[in-house]
Write a structure and sequence with these properties.
Blueprint: H1 12-38, H2 40-55, H3 62-75, E1 83-85, H4 87-97, E2 100-103, E3 106-111, E4 115-121, H5 126-129, E5 137-141, E6 144-145, H6 151-158, E7 165-171, E8 177-183, E9 185-188, E10 192-197, E11 201-206, H7 213-226, E12 231-235, H8 244-254, E13 258-265, E14 270-275, E15 284-288, H9 294-307, E16 311-313, E17 321-327, E18 333-342, E19 358-359, H10 370-384
Parallel strand pairs: 11-12, 12-15, 15-16, 16-19
Antiparallel strand pairs: 1-18, 2-9, 3-4, 4-5, 5-6, 5-7, 7-8, 10-11, 13-14, 13-18, 17-18
Length: 385
């Protein structure tokens, strides 16, 4: 005779307790993993956020709290090159790096304790139409002071949606201040301009190393050679850098066979990028200044190292870290220094910048570009030897 085993029945309370027990075990496991992987710091941050949400009695904007916390975290690293962008700022950065962005049409650098110094004003952009000129300082946006803001925070305030208005407080070259009302528009930026100067020297100004800049430099070199250029001067002044792959493509097109870029991540593994044998066999020189950052100063250093191209101008920033924009769940991103880079021969620019062949200020008068004159003299000497 067959008999069926009687099934054990569980009450609803027992099943609930079992589910809660499983959830507690899963939670404990997750906390333990966080502790092992990230340490106590992330739990402290999470705990602080939990206290704000459950215990704080005042009114607050959750986005502003999170943004402030992330800004503070990056500032705590002490790295001047890393910064946090909120969702709006990250979207604007992505547009700008495509050499097409919504904004007022300026390139800026941090003027410590004051605001954002204007390095370039784009043609036909709102800033140009409003009379803003190179060298002026944006000290506030819609009444919000930029004196204590990072470069990333400041550019985020200036950026925004197309068609929206903003008021900039601008400190003029004479020290006076004025209010300028602008409307954000779509700005198209041409990253490379060039012309053939007297003496058959091609002049190429590179404004950034973002999308299509390497192709534009290659096209400029080819066009200038067709026009009869027998030497090249690259103007990297007020160039804030950009993408590593655009940099290495430019160098590969210009330089002979050999290592042109070395990078190293947190784990210490080195990656070496080499140029092939195809190159541009012309005398070259590079112009730099205090606004020459990152890929721009590296470009100058590598041309000098590989083919002896002289560097003319004033001391550069001395940047030797590369940043990666890492998206966050809130739509923003951390632009975090994730790599160190060195020249093909292994030289770091950190703290030193480039090694100048000719140190000379730009000159005060309009059209009185002493740095360019010095560069033209250098390539003329190289052509004669």
């Amino acid at each position: 005779m067959l008999t069926l085993k009687k099934e054990k029945r569980y009450s609803a309370a027992q099943m609930l307790l079992a589910a809660l027990g499983g959830a507690m075990v899963a939670l404990a496991t997750a906390v333990l993993l966080l502790w092992v992987i990230l340490g106590p710091y992330v739990l402290s941050l999470a705990g602080a956020w939990g206290l704000v949400r459950t215990r704080f009695v005042g009114e607050y904007d959750p986005d502003e709290v999170v943004d402030a916390a992330l800004n503070g975290m990056v500032a705590g690293t002490g790295d001047r090159w890393s910064y946090y962008l909120n969702a709006e700022g990250y979207a604007a950065q992505n547009q700008r790096r495509d050499n097409s962005f919504v904004g007022v049409g300026v390139t800026v650098e941090e003027a410590e304790g004051v605001g954002l110094r204007v390095l370039e004003v784009y043609e036909n952009a709102p800033a140009q139409e409003a009379g803003i000129v190179v060298g002026e300082v944006i000290t506030a946006v819609d009444g919000v002071s930029l004196a204590d803001k990072t470069l990333g925070e400041g550019t985020t305030l200036v950026g925004g949606e197309e068609g929206t208005s903003l008021t900039l407080t601008v400190q003029g070259l004479d020290g006076s201040r004025r209010e300028v009302e602008l409307q954000r528009t779509q700005v198209e930026n041409i990253s490379v301009v060039y012309e053939l100067l007297e003496g058959e020297t091609g002049y190429i100004q590179v404004k950034n190393f973002y999308t299509h800049s390497a192709d534009q430099v290659k096209a400029a070199v080819e066009e200038l050679r067709e026009q009869g250029a027998t030497a090249l001067v690259f103007d990297m002044r007020n160039n804030g850098g950009g993408y590593v792959d655009e940099l290495t493509r430019m160098l590969d097109d210009l330089l002979p066979e050999g290592p042109i870029f070395r990078s190293e991540g947190k784990e210490g593994r080195e990656t070496v990028t080499d140029s092939d044998a195809s190159c541009v066999d012309l005398p070259m020189a590079t112009l730099v200044n205090a606004g020459t950052y990152s890929a721009a100063e590296f470009f100058a250093a590598q041309l000098q190292e590989s083919v002896g191209a002289p560097i003319i101008g004033v001391a550069t920033s001395g940047k030797g870290y590369s940043q990666q924009a890492i998206p966050l769940p809130n739509g923003g991103a951390l632009n975090l220094s994730t790599g160190r880079y060195r020249t093909g021969a292994g030289v770091s620019l950190v703290g030193t910048g480039v090694k100048l062949d000719v140190e000379v200020e730009q000159g005060e008068g309009a059209g009185d570009d002493l740095q360019l004159q010095a560069a033209l003299e250098k390539v003329r000497e190289k052509k004669e030897t």
